[in-house]
Amino acid sequence: MKLKNNALNQAIKFALATTTAGLFFSGSAIAADEQQQTKVNKNVEKIAVVGTRSAPRSIGDSPVPIDIIGGEELERSGNTDMLELLKGAVPSFNVHQNPISDAASLVRPANLRGLPSDSTLVLLNGKRRHRASVIAFLGGGINDGAQGADISVIPSIAIKQVEVLRDGAAAQYGSDAIAGVMNFQLKDASEGGKLEIRHGQFYEGDGDTTQVSGNVGLPFTDNGFANLSFQYKTADATSRSVQRADAAALSAAGVPDVSSLAQVWGAPEVDDDITIFGNVGLELTNDSEFYMFGNYSERDVRGGFYYRNPQTRSGVYSNDGGETLLVADLTPDMSANCPTIAITDGNVLDDPAYINGVANNPDCFAFNESLPGGFTPNFGGNITDTSLTIGTKGRFTDGFLKDTYYDLSGTVGLNESRYFIYDTVNASLGADTPRDFSPGKYEQLEKNFNFDLSKGVDFGLAYDVNIAGGFEWHEETFTIISGDEESYTAGPLTEQGFGIGSNGFPGFKPSQAGEFSRRNYAAYVDVEAPFTEDFLMGVALRFEDYDSFGTTTNYKVMAQYHLTEDLNIRGSVSSGFRAPTVGQANVSNVQTSLDSGVLQDSALLPPTNPIAVQLGGTELEPEESQSYTLGAVYTIGELFLTLDYYNIQVDDRISQSDKINLSQADKDTLAAAGVPNVQGLAQVSFFTNDFDTTTQGIDLVANYTAELMGGSSTFSLAYNWNDTEVTQFSEITGAFKVKRLEEDLPNHRATFTLSQQWESVSAFARANYYGEYQGVHVDYDATAKTADAAVTIDAEVTYFLNESVSFSVGAQNIFDQDAEKLDFADRIDTPNNNWGGQFYETSPFGINGGFYYAKATYTF
């Protein structure tokens, strides 16, 4: 379906017209009945909203495992990216840096419990967060084709706490909650605030990062608050590269203008990264309140891409692998008789045939004239993210619904990604080509409307039984906007074999552009029954109806039992689903990637495209899951310990297929369908429901507090064992991708943290353990190896000058632990290291090494 009006204007009108709010957060959380108050262990003061529609409860009394990370803990780190902050705090949360990974470098996908980023539902103040417009076409196997929310836009200074529900929760929250739920709670103070400035760089002397952030709480009349936060950040690019072997050989042969680092592996440059969050609440009466929150965020990102060799790059310099030079006849009737120039050594520019037939012949042209040393495109984008939630919640005081809590809300979220590719060419335009292009834009627009009810009913049990029910309406629209005409046009040299469109990322043609929408509604019921003071049981049932693929019904049963005052056991059984995104069902794209170490152009097609259907594609269906957890919570003195086992079976998982080689007949069909630059394409892929997995693991969390060393000490240990097995797949998925799904992430992850507080000084140190993982470079199976386990250490010391001013210094990876180094350059079965890297890009702690920083904070 197509929206008839501008998407953003419609979204804002929808949000402003919706005078209510409250997705997935029961009204019973406003003021719990005294009989429903949960027992809170004196040593456990962390209270969670997520995971229940009854009163908020301590994480020790939750029937499902929940991690809570406080805002101060998030801010006490040298990192400025929310993804990295969470990786240090939640061992089952993994994120890669993804150098040279197209859009995945702009919005990095993350993994909770070994599942892709779009298997974790993200909430803000309990409301569903919209997903990013970026689809991770090069997602490192695990995230190939994933389209999750952009967590990186959320600044730590705006956060009161983060709640991570490590349990399948689709029956409670709907699609995407297979791995779990992450709920970001915004600060809600009506006074005070903080201003913070930090600066740091990597030990290598690059990646300079400066961040200015602030938070202020203001009264909103006498009965409300307005809490505002901002963050502004810039980060320079990093490089952990060596010169490519082919580029070094060209320089040695005398080829001019070859960059000293022809291909850069590292973090991209981030410029003008600004984000603003607001959170407003107002008490309307003693039994009702209004709330509103949202954000505006924008950043520019630019990173490296693959080097174009001036003697081998197809569609630009040669179409036969470097045997002969690609030469254009510029005469209207192609009468110049341009010579065939064999490439016989490392410098074709010295060949007399080239000098006489091309360089000194105005009727013949080769890109070696204007770009003799080849070129390296840079890939980048402008990412904009906005959201707004407005609503009301409270308690009915009379009538049939007396003492029933309600929450009524409207939410709108929009994420836009406009792509840019720099320092490249549209070869079909010849010498007239621009060097910089905007290939187009993706937009992801989501609207939600929710109405929730919750009431405690006395059935003569230990406490009231909480009965909740609700309704949700959701609309999702994915928009493709065409790029600059020069980024997709077929220029005059097309028929002579020169590539069409901006090399590396051809622009979206007007025929590819369009708006694709889907609507769904859901109804749910949720019951939590405290049969005794020691035994709690909950049941959830959710029905959803999608206008694309039909209906789905999911359930969840959870329970907790106190064996003793100090020990309780808990568990859950649930079914779940993840609906394919509208983007996954409709997007098409041409990308440049490596296949078996060779640079190839491949096309991603919608799964219903005739070529995709011919190769095994079908219309996407929802993923379906079955999961269960079993765990225990133990407290003794100042020690708090949880241990949980989980098992998640996912059928018909959605991912990008393996890249499939094209026949000439396939290319002819694609050309007739309007796919650009078909003759330059070697492969195609598409999204497919093509494999099943079983993921199991153990989470161990322990906390201990004591008075030591003349101050207050806190010890925290968190450990995760995670194992994924692909239980069914076809050749469309590919054996190497299966291996990546099973082995790229470490099976073992742990963190041990010591926090110490004295009167005027505080400090913390964290040891991060990463078990063995599969080292992979350039998505090439011949590079794969089992990489060694490693430990990194983070530390920070803060001095409080007075009650308002403090200064901090610290470092991440303080001992500069290197990632696993590449060791395949001299293998007989692989070409020389022609990609310029030093480290395996799948390193779970990145490839950039140690980072140190200083920070000044003013609190008021």
UniProtKB/TrEMBL annotation:
Pfam families: Plug (PF07715), TonB_dep_Rec_b-barrel (PF00593)
Annotated signal peptide: 1-31
Keywords: Cell outer membrane, Membrane, Receptor, Signal, TonB box, Transmembrane, Transmembrane beta strand, Transport
Topology of the protein relative to the lipid bilayer: Multi-pass membrane protein
UniProt entry tagged with the keyword Aminoacyl-tRNA synthetase: no
InterPro entries: Beta-barrel_TonB (IPR000531), Beta-barrel_TonB_sf (IPR036942), Plug_dom (IPR012910), Plug_dom_sf (IPR037066), TonB-dep_rcpt-like (IPR039426)
Main location (coarse class): membrane
Localisation per UniProt entry: Cell outer membrane
Domain TonB-dependent receptor-like beta-barrel: 374-814
Record has Signal as a keyword: yes
Domain TonB-dependent receptor plug, first and last residues per copy: 61-181
PANTHER family given in the database record: PTHR47234, SECRETIN_TONB SHORT N-TERMINAL DOMAIN-CONTAINING PROTEIN
Protein family per UniProt: Belongs to the TonB-dependent receptor family.
Annotated protein name in UniProt: TonB-dependent receptor
The species this protein was found in: Pseudoalteromonas arctica
